[in-house]
Design brief:
Keywords: Membrane, Transmembrane, Transmembrane helix. With 146 residues, the chain is mostly helical. It has a domain of 94 residues. It is 71% helix and 0% strand. The longest helix is centred in the first third of the chain and has 39 residues. It starts with a helix and ends with a helix.
Length: 146
């Protein structure tokens, strides 16, 4: 069941540029808030453990975690709305025949690798001459006629 679901998701991801736009935008926009929340969880955990070691009560850690979630959930909700708007705009532009959504959804361009032994335009460029190493003062003095 999960393999079939994964294949359906991959097929949808490959065939529909709006899905790719939504996934990329969500990932990019969520990276920093999720990183900040991960650090918040870490510091809350450390603080709770230190408090529990001090007086045996660790009830404040759960309340702090809920306070962090109260901030993260609206931020992520906003990010999902923005990513959905980008996907809708991408879909609308693609329906009009625009090239921009296809370029955005395709991701970064990857240069094709030439097979070994193939001459490329870089091979035709003249080789840069190696810089000459400075001569030692003794060698320069010995080279001059006295």
């Amino acid at each position: 069941m999960s393999r079939k679901l994964l294949q359906m998701a991959q097929q949808s991801f490959q065939q529909h540029p709006a899905v790719r736009t939504f996934v990329y935008a969500t990932g990019i926009l969520s990276a920093i808030p999720l990183g900040v929340f991960a650090m918040y969880i870490l510091f809350t955990l450390i603080g709770s453990l230190m408090a529990a070691g001090g007086d045996g009560r660790a009830g404040g850690g759960g309340r702090s975690l809920l306070a962090g979630l109260a901030v993260l959930v609206p931020v992520e909700g906003t990010i999902l709305v923005v990513a959905g708007g980008l996907a809708a705009a991408s879909s609308a532009l693609a329906a009009r025949g625009g090239a921009a959504p296809r370029a955005i959804a395709a991701g970064p361009a990857r240069p094709a690798l030439a097979p070994p032994g193939t001459v490329t335009e870089l091979d035709d460029a003249p080789a840069a001459e190696a810089p000459q190493a400075p001569q030692a003062p003794q060698a320069a003095a010995a080279a001059e006629p006295a």
